Amino acid sequence: MALHYVTAGETHGPQLTAIVTGLPAGLSVTADDINRDLARRQAGYGRGKRMAIEHDRVQFQSGLRFGRTLGSPLAMVIENRDWANWQGIMALEGRGDSDATRARIITRPRPGHADLPGVLKWHQHDARNVLERASARETAARVAVGAVARRFLAEFGIRVFSHVVHLGGIPIDCAGLTYAAIAEAADASPFRAGNAACEDLLKARVDRAAEEGDTLGGIFEVVATGLPAGLGSCMESAGRLDGRLAGAVMSIQGIKGVEIGLGFEGARLPGSRVHDPIFFDREREERYLEGHGFTGGYFRTSNNAGGLEGGMTNGEPIVIRAAMKPIATLGRPLPSVDFVTKEPFHAAHERSDVCAVPAAAVVGEAVVAFVLAQAFLEKFGGDHMDEVSAAFERYLQYLNTR
Ligand code: EPS
Questions:
Q1: Strand pairing report for 64-65 and 68-69
Q2: Most buried in the list 16, 105, 170, 171, measured by CB within 10 Å?
Q3: C-beta of residue 255 within 8 angstroms of C-beta of residue 189
Q4: pLDDT tens digits, one per residue of 91-107
Q5: Nearest C-alpha to atom 18 of ligand 1 is from which residue?
């Protein structure tokens, strides 16, 4: 069974649900594993009042017995505490014709949000029927799924971390820092900055945007280390890991651009300055790049490819960056058109965040971890973790004969 997931839940509905299918039996998963990542996603300077209401915790519903996967669908639920304030407006049953509900109908679509294309597509007369699901609240469920994938990858020494490299036009320079140092600093930083030196500047930037009723975007980077060469495929376009990773990251709410390794910069340089020369030395591990995985002795001294060649891992760290647009819900809304009266309006103001780039970075980790777990299981899949481990070990032994 291939590894898949689905999420369900509206942002102001009772709960979020995530179901993961295709996990091997015997993987140890605890609520702490999931809650740690849920808390990391909730942290971050620039979030709105909603984060003070929510306290995301996973409740397992199926798929585990005594802390280990059974091979059956793993169902996880995260409560929306805000539901208590929305039960009337978001009732799952009934007619929805009370005065209170009518008074909250949204007919003014926000530029940059799913509101307008969504009401047209689904024949809706209240944009709430679209925005409730389009909301980035859904990413809490994806982070829960990603935490399970991270748990799986950790069994094989594969780690995934993220940091913000640009926020509101301010670059965060991590040149010369090790991945370990960046990951630690990012987890301690309210901006997920791998270098704390610019935090005062970042705070001032977010505060100014908040005062001006504006919002900010940014760029985050996700890094995966310890990968064996050969995950993914160049044989089928659908199997190309670069495409699958980019698609997964691009599917995060608010993402408008994705690049791998040198990315767009590589298009400006000649090939001699882009491609990573290949060397071989079975014994000289100290020459390997930090985060180098299993290659049987082949190594590079640069990683402009971002760990992917021909849609496959090459054993170097995967480095993938994503550009997040500023949040569409502005304190001082942009012009829009009421879709009932067709009159120009300033778009509706829903309560919102000023900046959610640090949170999006944690979601980036989750979706990257999930795609990597899928690719790992495609190559080393089995019904029980012991079978997966045995297949992986066999491959490592084989690599050492190359
Ligand atoms: C979001 C709008 C805000 C965010 C929300 C995403 O929610 P609300 O409309 O309730 O103020 O707080 O993010 C979350 C709830 C979350 O958990 O990240 C949106 O429109 O995308």
A1: antiparallel
A2: 16
A3: no
A4: 999 998 888 889 999 99
A5: 137
Find where tokens 């994503």 sit.
322
Name the residue ranges covered by the structural domains of the chain.
Answer: 4-399
179 in Cβ contact with 161 (< 8 Å): yes
Query: Which SS3 state, helix, strand or coil, does residue 345 take?
Result: strand
Ligand 1 lined by 69 (C-beta under 6 Å) = no
Q: Hey, which of 215, 325, 353 would you mutate to test ligand 1's pocket, going by the most ligand atoms within 8 Å of its Cβ? A: 353
Distance 80 CA to ligand 1 centre (A): 11
Average pLDDT, the chain: 96
- Over the range 295-316, which residues count as b (16 or more CB within 10 Å of their CB) and which as e? bbbbbbeebbbbbbbebbbbbb
CB atoms < 10 A from the CB of 84, how many?
A: 10
Rounded to 5°, angle at Cα 190 from 151 and 137? 60
Residues 33/102, Cβ–Cβ less than 8 Å: no
pLDDT at 287: 82
Q: How far is the CA of 350 from the centre of ligand 1 (A)?
A: 9
**To which residue do tokens 């996700």 refer?**
222
Residue keyed to tokens 């530029």? 111
Fold category of 4-399 in CATH: Chorismate synthase, AroC fold (3.60.150)
Question: Atom 10, ligand 1: which residue's CA is nearest?
Answer: 50
Could you give the CA distance from residue 124 to residue 118 in angstroms, rounded to a whole number?
A: 8
Q: Which residues contact 285 (CB under 8 A, 6 or more apart)?
A: none
Find all residues with CB under 8 Å of 117, minimum gap 6, and list them: none
d(Cα 126, Cα 123) in Å, to the nearest integer?
9
* First and final C-alpha spacing in the chain: 31
Q: Whose CA is nearest to atom 15 of ligand 1?
A: 137
Q: Which amino acid is at 223?
A: V
What is d(CA 79, CA 59) in angstroms, rounded to the nearest whole number? 8
How is the beta sheet containing 15-21 ordered, strand by strand?
A: 4-8, 15-21, 74-79, 58-62
